[in-house]
Write a structure and sequence with these properties.
heterodimer; A: 470 residues; alpha/beta; Amidase signature (AS) enzymes; 3 domains; 39% helix; B: alpha+beta; Arc Repressor Mutant, subunit A; 9-stranded mixed beta sheet; 15 helices; 14 strands; elongated
């Protein structure tokens, strides 16, 4: 059953939220040991929430559009009293005293939080192998990665542990794992969803978004969490978009562009699916043509200066003074050094060093400053493309899920995000929709890109693709 | 100070803004509370927390900028990155290359115009206290405690141009700036509580030159007096270095109460703050209409108030400065407007209202001085009644009556003076011979007889009349 069907059944009293929850907890029991999607399963508090949902339904109350739907949260979203680790040793044992805005909103819509999911440490990675607590495996094929950094959330939905999950996307961290796990993953427009309570990786890029098995389920979750939040200054002054209402509108007459510059980035099996998706949309009445976003090819380089620069500053606070890990030293400086040396993994350290260097006096203009200028160009080129097209199309991941340990070279890993990063730099919206399979019969995701606040048209195209795929 | 050298000083003044809540969170901005009680996830830099700019702090920054004749501009917050335990995020949100106020000036009471380079908003850090070492210093301490109540308190850093030419002038600038801060309600600017902190950039140069030589930044200045001492000491140190063929190094120095400065860190040890625009905040672009509203609502500034009170009462420059500093100018002007004699008002305001007006109102003040100049109260009695008006308010006539301060009629006083003359015949002879210094003998006797309630001036008048 989809999340929408489950919520309808719970709201109408046909199924109890407790029953729905137990079914999912049983699936977790069955397969979590081999998948390792979760950092924490919050079975007890979930049972208590489910009971409250059932009591409200019994009392004639409507618990909301997500009534009784189990929801998994990436473990970089703050949950009051529940450990929030970012899959890092440095935050091991820390329990936030507050809930992230998205958590409050999802719970207010009736969702039942089943647990916190595994990620690449501080969301830095594309395979979830960088978790300090062991990798997550792809439910479709256990020797493959689920993608990352929101690999735990993608795997949780793919394995049926929860119909819905939230992830965060900085350079592709929702879309790429969604593609590799065969689920829908949405990166909303920057500022659509509040970042309050999302542990920052790269503040100007981070955005929370949904994972779901269907486009409609992703839409209902996004509607619940989106909308202005006064606690996030970068939050857009717009109400949540109405998406469910437009899903069925089809793509007749829409102008869809296939991004030329990213066409060669994908493996042939993946590229073939993008072509098939374009054909399907064309058959459904859309006008499909080639589009050009010239600066997109510089996206990866700019991203790997901007994101580490912001991360080097965002991650400075993990110094052993106030919370999380502390390794003592003779003085404060030594304590901080030892704590950070012991608490951060290699990839996080590498990015902190990269970012620190990029911001250093004398190098700022050459690195961070130039990367920001590239970002402006990327934004400009996308804006120009959207003058001719309603949405753009490209692969999500250059390849299907790869094997654990296969990408030992960090640069090979970084290239996983080549198709997802450009939109992130532009601050626009994008969604990855499963569209058949590629090599080794593994899922392939096709990415639909839309301008800022273009979620309604983006979801229409996603729904059409979903229909064509099945 | 050698005549061949000129001191060059620029001041960086940090003030805590008088807002109800902090710069980026809803936590109370209040001094002196139980440690770590005025904190939110934002103040503690907890993972996931985000700053939201306090509009009231921006308004105060603009208000001061306008009072200092600055241009108010669109500005951008930046992160200043360095590791320090009392800084919760290990970066400080400040304004860097695009501050909110630029290019202003402040005119000193002495008439010198000092350039204001910029005034920018930033958040304060927490406060460390070191336990177990000597003098509460970090060195040798067993452990440290951190109070984050201050973390995130809004600060305005006001940077002057190097336009000050002596320690006296630097002090005058700091005092005038403080007067403006208090008058505009921007800050309570108390140096002893740390809500106003002054760092001095000091250098010297050959008199008559316009070069700017290597400067040293002096920190830990806790009072206006220390400011003067620190600058004098530092300037002298520079002169001695130059005269011995050496030169000062660009560095930050610590002023200690022994009157000396010591190296805190040299340029080589200075941080690379890796400034970059704060991505969690949007740029701050105040609506020009709002700026004009703030300008229109600006209260009278100390310079204008000094001029007004001096013109209306004939107060000297020093007295006018004192009145404005004590916020008594309005009271004096209103009382003078009600017909009280300005001289007496000034005398009382300067000598008897050091702790402020308390419950004293302008009508009561005016009535009191009218009673005094009308001879109904002696100076001593007036002072007593004034003290009660300050303490608990009321009607001076009622207070005077309750204390039995009835004006002595002149025949009664004349009788007392005559008695004093009769009792001190020798002194009287001397007084009549022109020895004015013995006058006190008679005044003293009359005061003794009236337990101090007689009007000294009236006694003198009678004595002069009797001498003929």
């Amino acid at each position: 059953m989809t999340a929408i069907e489950l919520a309808a059944a719970v709201r109408s009293g046909h199924r109890s939220a407790v029953d729905v929850l137990e079914e999912h907890l049983a699936r977790i029991d069955e397969r979590e040991a081999e998948v390792h999607a979760f950092m924490t399963v919050t079975a007890d508090s979930a049972r208590a929430s489910a009971r409250r949902i059932d009591e409200r339904v019994a009392a004639g109350d409507d618990p909301g559009p997500l009534a009784g739907v189990p929801l998994a949260l990436k473990d970089n979203m703050c949950t009051r009293g529940v450990p929030t680790t970012c899959s890092s040793r440095i935050l091991e044992g820390w329990r936030p005293p507050y809930d992230a805005t998205v958590v409050e909103r999802a719970v207010a819509a009736g969702a039942v939080i089943v647990g916190k999911t595994n990620l690449d440490e501080f969301a830095m990675g594309s395979s979830t192998e960088n978790s300090a607590f062991g990798p997550t495996r792809n439910p479709h094929c256990l020797d493959r990665v689920p993608g990352g950094s929101s690999g735990g959330s993608a795997a949780a939905v793919a394995a049926g542990f929860a119909p819905l999950a939230l992830g965060s996307d900085t350079g592709g961290s929702i879309r790429q794992p969604a593609a590799l796990c065969g689920v829908v993953g949405v990166k909303p427009t920057y500022g659509r969803v509040s970042r309050y309570g999302l542990v920052a990786f790269a503040s100007s890029l981070d955005q929370i978004g949904p994972f779901a098995s269907t486009v409609a389920d992703a839409a209902v979750l996004l509607e619940a969490i989106a909308g202005h939040d006064p606690l996030d200054s970068t939050s857009i002054q717009e109400p949540a978009p109405r998406l469910l209402d437009v899903l069925h509108q089809g793509v007749e007459g829409l102008r869809i562009g296939i991004i030329d510059e990213l066409a060669s980035a994908a493996d042939p099996d993946v590229a073939a699916r993008v072509t098939a998706a374009a054909d399907a949309l064309s058959a459904a009445g859309a006008k499909v043509d080639r589009a050009t976003v010239p600066a997109a090819v510089y996206g990866l380089t700019a991203y790997y200066l901007i994101a580490p620069a912001e991360a080097s500053s965002n991650l400075a606070r993990y110094d052993g003074v106030r919370y999380g890990l502390r390794v003592d030293g003779a003085d404060t400086t030594e304590m901080m050094r030892r704590t950070r040396s012991a608490g951060f993994g290699d990839e996080v350290k590498a990015r902190i060093m990269l970012g620190t260097y990029a911001l250093s006096a004398g190098y700022y203009d050459a690195f961070y400053g130039k990367a920001q200028r590239v970002r402006t160009l990327v934004r400009r080129d996308f804006a120009a493309a959207y003058e001719h097209f309603d949405v753009l199309l490209c692969a999500t991941s250059p390849s299907v899920a790869f094997r654990l340990g296969e990408k030992a070279d960090p640069l090979a890993m970084y290239r996983c995000d080549v198709c997802t990063i450009p939109t992130s730099l532009a601050g626009d919206a994008a969604v990855s929709v499963p569209f058949g399979t590629g090599a080794d019969d593994l899922p392939v995701g096709v990415q639909v890109l839309a301008p800022a606040l273009g979620e309604p048209v983006m979801f229409r195209v996603a729904a059409a693709l979903e229909g064509a795929a099945s | 100070m050698s005549a061949e050298w000129e001191t060059v000083v620029g001041l960086e003044v940090h003030v805590e803004l008088a807002t109800t809540t902090k710069l980026f969170s809803g936590a109370p901005n209040r001094f002196g509370d139980e440690p770590n009680t005025n904190v939110t996830p934002v103040c503690l830099g907890l993972p996931g927390s985000l700053p939201v700019l306090n509009r009231a702090a921006v308004e105060l920054a603009i208000r001061l900028g306008l009072a200092l004749n600055c241009e108010v501009r669109p500005s951008v917050f930046a992160r200043k990155n360095y590791f320090y335990p009392d800084m919760p995020k290990d970066f400080q949100i400040s304004q860097y290359d695009q501050p909110i106020c630029v290019d202003g000036w402040l005119e000193l009471p002495s008439g010198v115009r000092v350039g204001i380079e910029r005034a920018h908003l930033e958040e304060d850090t927490g406060k460390s206290s070191h336990v177990g070492g000597a003098d509460g210093r970090l060195h040798g301490s067993a452990y440290s405690l951190i109070d984050y109540n201050r973390a995130g308190v809004p600060l305005l850093e006001i940077v002057s141009r190097p336009d000050l030419r002596s320690s006296e002038q630097a002090r005058e600038y700091a005092e005038e700036l403080r007067a403006i801060l208090v008058a505009t309600g921007v800050s309570d600017a108390r140096m002893e509580e740390g809500s106003m902190r002054v760092d001095a950039n000091v250098s010297v140069r050959p008199a008559g030159s316009d070069e700017l030589r290597t400067r040293c930044e002096i920190k830990n200045i806790n009072s206006f007096r220390s400011l003067q001492r620190a600058i004098d000491h530092e300037a002298q140190r520079h002169i001695e270095l130059y005269e011995s063929g050496s030169a000062p190094r660009l560095e930050t120095r610590h002023f200690s109460e022994d009157g000396r400065t010591h190296t805190l860190r040299s340029k080589e040890e200075s941080h690379d703050y890796r400034y970059f625009p704060e991505p969690d905040l949007v740029s701050l672009d105040p609506d020009p209409a709002w700026v004009e509203e703030i300008r229109a609502a600006l209260p009278a500034l100390p310079a204008a108030r000094r001029a007004a009170v001096a013109e209306a009462t004939g107060a000297s420059h020093d007295d006018a400065t004192l009145l404005v500093a004590r916020d008594l100018d309005g009271l004096v002007l209103a009382a003078a407007g009600a017909g009280a004699e300005p001289d007496r008002l000034l005398t009382h305001a300067v000598n008897n209202l050091a702790d402020g007006p308390g419950c004293l109102t302008a009508p009561a003040f005016a009535a009191l001085v009218r009673m005094e100049t009308g001879g109904e109260l002696t100076a001593t009695q007036a002072k007593d009644v004034l003290a009660e008006l300050v303490a608990s308010g009321g009607d001076p006539a009622v207070i005077a009556a309750a204390r039995g301060y009835e004006a002595m009629d002149s025949s009664e006083l004349e009788a007392l003076v005559d008695a004093a003359i009769a009792d001190n015949a020798d002194a009287w002879e001397k007084f009549c011979a022109g020895e004015d210094r013995v006058q006190g003998v008679f005044v003293g006797a009359v005061m003794k007889a009236t337990r101090g309630q007689a009007d000294g001036k009236a006694v003198n008048r009678i004595l002069q009349a009797r001498r003929g």
